[in-house]
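agent> step 3/5: call structure_predict on target 'Ceramide synthase 2a' (Seriola lalandi dorsalis).
agent> reason: downstream docking stage needs a structural representation; sequence fetched in step 2, passing through unchanged.
tool.input:
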Amino acid sequence: MLSRLSELIWADWIWFPEGHGWADLTDHDGKVYPKTRDLWATVPIAICFLVIRQIFERTVAIPLASLLGVSDKQRVRASPNPTLESYFCSTSKHPTQSSIESLSKQTGCSVRQVQRWFRRRRNQDRPSKLKKFREASWRFTFYLLAFFAGLAVLVDKPWLYDMKQMWDGFPKMPLLPSQYWYYMIELGFYLSLLFSVASDVKRKDFKEQIVHHVATILLISFSWLVNYIRAGTLIMLVHDASDYLMESAKMFNYAGWRKTCNFIFTVFAAVFIITRLIILPFWITHTTWVYPQTLYPPFLGFYFFNGLMFVLQILHIFWAALILRMVIKFLPGNDIVEDERSDKEETESEDEDDDHERREKSKNGHMQNGHTPHNNNHRKRH
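tool.output (status=ok):
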């Protein structure tokens, strides 16, 4: 039963065009082709990335943060309160007004004190600026190195300049050592991001990031299995072209280098739109979706691969909208770009305003007939 199911899943007609199959990927005459078992190498590579990341953040990112002046302001911790803590952990971090009033009666605190407690408690769970900087610097380093490594792998390949050549001889295209390591390292890195997702900074597009990581891992793995290697290397290069710019803009944002951050982010926005919304859909996806149909009749693997491409394209459009919103915000003269995906730390300015108002009332006396008494003891200025 299992053997018949396996034969059905891996049937040639599912993954290859008519007249081709897994037999075409058998090594012969010194030519090597991708193997399913090769993908297992990405697991220890991902673990190595996790270890290297910890070392990098401690020995490189933290000293660099200090050098650039990254610092966290002192946060006021919420006072211990078992009732409020229980509600915070089990019910909601953002209680409604009626819930706040109910909690006020249960704890004997004023409504304002309950609101202040929840604000401080939420801020305690938000990642520090240093943690964000460490994460951004790690990703910046990888994406920068990966982009130039991808250029080195592809610069002398004809399909970089004429993308139709990515199908020349398909699927009997020998695997090059440079392609092997480019694939293994990229896939290992994305696996490490998936492994560390629980401890990384969670942004507003957390779910979209998970979908992106999973779609990317599936896309890279599938392209390896059926020898879409040439298309896969082009897709990875296009993605790495803008990612390091975004991470560097974040680094300068956390350091407070406003002009540098805005400049880099503007360059990033331009590169992102050109690579993700122009080159990827109109050149690469066109060559993986439209052109192959002039060579082979469509098959299930063809639809699966391009389906993943369309998932990524939808995410790119979503992120492009966020990027344009951020660009528009600082164009009129705002000081710094704010990451639309990040939770902003809540301040206690409202509390301070209320305290100031109470002090003023105490100083000036009670309100009379619904109006604050006027202070006439002032001089006219000439």
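agent> step 4/5: record observation. The mean pLDDT is 83.
agent> proceeding.
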